Amino acid sequence: MIRLEAETAGHVHLLYAKLPGESDDYIASLKLNGWHSLHTDFIAPYGKVVEVQIRTWDMH
User: Fold this and answer.
1) Please, which contacts does 14-22 make with residues 24 or more away whose CB atoms are closer than 8 Å?
2) What is the pLDDT of residue 37?
3) Helix (H, G, I), strand (E, B) or coil at 32
4) Which candidate, 50, 42, 54, 41, places its Cα nearest to that of 2?
5) pLDDT tens digits, 35-60
6) Closest Cα to residue 27, out of 14, 43, 8?
7) Angle at the Cα of 39 (from 37 to 41), degrees rounded to 5?
């Protein structure tokens, strides 16, 4: 599953400019509560900043 989340994040970053330093990888570095998710911020159209959380169905 990890590959799928990383691939999805890659597609988002191909479409939109990633905000430097504004991403968290809770798959490589698990949180103490077991949270598995990739968080990334990017600049959407019209300059809006959007955070995307890519996670498994179990984490949803």
Assistant:
1) 16/42, 16/43, 16/44, 16/50, 17/42, 17/43, 18/42, 19/43, 19/49, 22/51
2) 82
3) coil
4) 54
5) 788 888 888 889 899 998 888 777 76
6) 8
7) 170
Region class of 46: left (phi > 0), else alpha (psi between -120 and 50), else beta: left
Q: What is the pLDDT of residues 3-28, one digit of tens each?
A: 777 788 888 888 888 888 887 887 77
> Which two structure tokens, joined as six digits, stand for 3?
């590959």
pLDDT at 1: 52
54: number of Cβ within 10 Å: 19
Q: Which two tokens stand for residue 60?
A: 């949803």
